[in-house]
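Deliverable D5.2: sample structural annotation.
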Amino acid sequence: MGATPPRIPGTTLFDGAQARKGYALNKMCFSFNSAQARSEFRRDEEAYMRRYQLSEPQAQAIRQRDVLGLLAAGGNVYYLAKFAGILGLDVQDLGAAQTGMSKEAFKARLVAQNQQPDTLPS
């Protein structure tokens, strides 16, 4: 058996249990790869969620556009990015929501973490 990964405060670990919990939600979000599906969702969100048999916590998080609630309800960030696109959001918006930062602060943090020294140590 492998070691338990360290917990990161404020995050939801996407493991097997979360994958099973979020199956319907992630399947629905994957459908948004299709322009027709996105149009159907926009036309009648409630009917679209019923088609995929979302749980009430998942449906409520969709209604409230609650990214952290969607993650807690089993959403995978890569599938949720499809839903975020319908709302005009991008992955940086999702990252900012996950960390409780503004998008500008989150982007600045990404840039700072990516800065490399001019020379590598020998």
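Annotation notes: Residues 103-114 form the longest helix (12 residues). The domain at 16-86 is CATH 1.10.700.10 (Protocatechuate 4,5-dioxygenase; Chain A).
The annotation will be released with the project's public dataset once the embargo ends.
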